[in-house]
Write a structure and sequence with these properties.
- This protein is mainly alpha-helical.
- It has one domain.
- The protein is 73% helix and 0% strand.
- It has 15 helices and no strands.
- The protein is globular, with a radius of gyration of 21 Å.
- It starts with a helix and ends in a 7-residue tail after the last helix.
- 50% of the residues are buried.
- It is a multi-pass membrane protein.
- This is FUSC family protein.
- Its main location: membrane.
């Protein structure tokens, strides 16, 4: 189906307008939201105190990403999503930074990151979220190539932020009486499922194989685009594409629309705050922590509202490296539009591939 027909047929305007910025108060876990904020504050404060806000930025980004795992469920261990994410992000940050100057390695590792992210859809939302954090850490680190020691330093900062987040969140859980084991867990998502997609699910007639291959190609193409076009903060393009692409093309369309609208809204919020407050480093850190708490709170609400809060938070976080907030939000919008459209084209391609594969496996009609 051509892209313009897909968009016209699959954008229910009324439903989108109702759900885009919907706020669902009952889905907020206030104790977990509050528990996720101190780790970021500590990382940012330490960076500012030591005169290296860029170090605090990297550590805080690790804490921010790992914090979302507190709201995921993967195995019966409550902290498992955070632990899986933290370990994989640490390795991915080292790998991305160390291989960032070698294009053949970047192509290889981008394909692996994309395939894992696409294939993990078959293992459930938590498995997909975990592999997505690995991919994000990899593509962000790729923008900052370094030698072995420099790459290890970056990985160490991500590890420090992630471990601090896990320690503080699990401590908070103990204090409020939450068990480390989720007794009501139904066992539908196990750690083995994270790797099962590389086994019997990846067969020649598998939907999982097709989305994994498509996502790998998308990851490589978006990475090459950022390298050749020299787009500022270009790592947001492959990250956006991987976040948006879903096995169902109509779901991809929804996420493209919601993410672009949410990004524009978040950019507007960040621009307005920056224009009114003109924040210094300390105020930037306060804004980042506050907006991070808002982002954690909005996860179960409308996707565009969640994206808006994340966009505003990331805009101020990246600004700690010295880039003006206005430039950051402009780069974010450009990357979101490019990544979203490329994900949409990929979804259309996967849908066409699915139709072709099913037609090839249908039994011939009986002669009468």
């Amino acid at each position: 189906m051509p892209v313009h027909r897909l968009l016209r047929a699959r954008i229910p305007v009324r439903r989108y307008s109702q759900e885009m910025f919907a706020f669902r108060r009952g889905d907020i876990r206030p104790e977990t939201v509050i528990a996720c904020m101190p780790a970021m504050a500590i990382c940012l404060a330490a960076g500012i105190f030591l005169g290296r806000p860029d170090y605090g930025l990297v550590a805080a980004s690790g804490a921010f990403s790992v914090g979302f795992g507190a709201f995921q469920r993967f195995t019966a261990v409550r902290a498992a999503p955070m632990l899986f994410a933290m370990v994989g992000m640490t390795f991915a940050a080292w790998l991305g930074s160390f291989s960032g100057g070698y294009l053949p390695l970047m192509i290889l590792f981008s394909a692996v990151a994309g395939a894992l992210c696409g294939g993990a859809n078959a293992a459930g939302p938590a498995a997909w979220w975990i592999t997505l954090q690995w991919a994000i850490a990899f593509f962000v680190a790729d923008a900052y190539p370094a030698d072995m020691m420099g790459a290890l330093g970056r990985a160490g900062l991500v590890f420090t932020g992630g471990v601090l987040q896990i320690v503080l969140v699990t401590t908070a859980w103990v204090l409020v009486g939450k068990s480390a084991i989720i007794r009501e867990h139904d066992g539908t998502e196990r750690w083995q499922d994270l790797f099962a997609v590389m086994g019997h699910r990846l067969t020649g007639h598998s939907d999982t194989l097709r989305i994994a291959v498509a996502t790998a190609i998308l990851a490589v193409l978006t990475m090459l685009l950022t390298k050749t076009a020299h787009i500022p903060n270009g790592y947001w393009i492959p990250v956006t594409a991987l976040i948006i692409l879903k096995p169902q093309s109509d779901k991809t369309v929804e996420r493209v629309v919601f993410r672009i609208c949410g990004t524009v809204a978040g950019a507007g919020i960040a621009t307005l705050i920056a224009a009114v407050l003109r924040p210094d480093e300390s105020l930037l850190a306060v804004l980042v922590v506050g907006l991070a708490g808002l982002a954690y709170s909005m996860q179960r609400s409308g996707y565009a509202a969640f994206v808006a809060s994340v966009t505003a938070c990331v805009a101020f976080l990246v600004s700690l490296a010295g880039l003006p907030e206005i430039e950051v939000v402009k780069h974010r919008i450009i990357a979101t539009v490019i990544g979203g459209l490329l994900a949409l084209v990929t979804a259309v391609g996967v849908e066409a591939w699915d139709r072709y594969a099913r037609r090839g496996t249908q039994p011939p009609a009986a002669e009468g």
